Amino acid sequence: MSDVVTDDELLYRCIFCGLGKYYRIGESGLELSSQAFTDRNQAPSVDRANLCSYDPQHTQKNPDDGVVSLITGEVRVINVPQNDEKGKPLFDYKIDVYPRPTDDNPSHAQIEPSPKYQNKTTFKKVAEKLARLATERIKKKDWEIRPQELRT
Questions:
Q1: In whole angstroms, what is the distance from residue 105 CA to residue 52 CA?
Q2: Using CA of residue 13, residue 16, residue 19, residue 20, what is the dihedral sign?
Q3: Which residues have CB under 8 Å from 100's CB, separation 6+?
Q4: What are phi and psi for residue 84, nearest 5 degrees?
Q5: Dist. CA 116–CA 12, nearest whole Å
Q6: pLDDT tens digit string along 113-126?
Q7: 78 and 92 Cβ atoms separated by less than 8 Å
Q8: Would you call 34 helix, strand, or coil by DSSP?
Q9: pLDDT tens profile 36-68
Q10: How many CA within 13 A on the CB side of residue 10?
Q11: 0.85 cut: is pTM over it?
């Protein structure tokens, strides 16, 4: 098992069933909410597709949930600055994907910053950018698995 997540790796993220909370139908079509990438530890979990046989069902928590995909290299180009109290930029966070395999899930990885976030506002900005990336991918490639309420 590789301990480095390569730029071209496909990542799966479970999107819980919940129209209006995790995604909505807006003027420009479907949009994922930043809530789809929220995480109490500020490190959203993903699964490395190549380590779960490219089976997005592996990522679902229950059969009603959806699954979206991201490309690792696109996650890594997310740019979020940390500003001081006056709004002057101090530094940019480096966003990366780290393997975090568990006994139950060897494909588990997390999207984490370096250094650690100094506040929740900065993490929310990253979650918003992840939601935009996933929304763009859905528009180009569709869901890996649609949530129950969006299935035809």
A1: 9
A2: negative
A3: 45, 108, 109, 110
A4: -80, -175
A5: 23
A6: 999 998 899 999 99
A7: no
A8: helix
A9: 999 999 999 999 999 999 999 999 999 999 999
A10: 16
A11: yes
Query: Contact, 58 vs 13, CB < 8 A?
Result: no
Task: Tell me the CA distances in angstroms from 7 to 69, 70, 74, 98, one per residue in order.
Answer: 14, 11, 8, 12
Token pair in block for residue 22: 């995790």
The type of residue at 37 is F
Q: How is the chain split into domains, by residue range?
A: 10-150
Phi and psi at residue 119, in whole multiples of 5°? -160, 165
Amino acid at 97: V
| pLDDT, tens only, 129-141 | 999 999 999 999 9
In this structure, which amino acid lies at residue 119? N
Amino acid in the structure at residue 40: R
